[in-house]
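Schema walk-through. Below, the input block comes first and the output block second. Nothing else is stored per chain. Lengths vary across the set, and this one has 92 residues.
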Amino acid sequence: MPKNALVTLRYGPYRSCGIAEHRTFRLQGLQAVLKADGHEVILEEIPDWNDVQLIVNGEMVFQCNINDLDFGGDGKLDPLCSEASIAVLNAY
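--- output ---
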């Protein structure tokens, strides 16, 4: 996939401090890594609990549990962010 791809980052609600709602704190590193690669990221809320999906050209290329992502940060040390970046670059 060339740079400047349009990546839809779909995320579901998760429980934190006893409150369940859609939050983007755990997505900051993933967004930073994708934007550093030159991709445009669109956030989209979904009803699936704890789920993160990356959609490129209408195809889901990566999926993980939102709780497995590092909280905040730039995503450079998070292995899931690296895996997601590679999945987007290998998308057709």
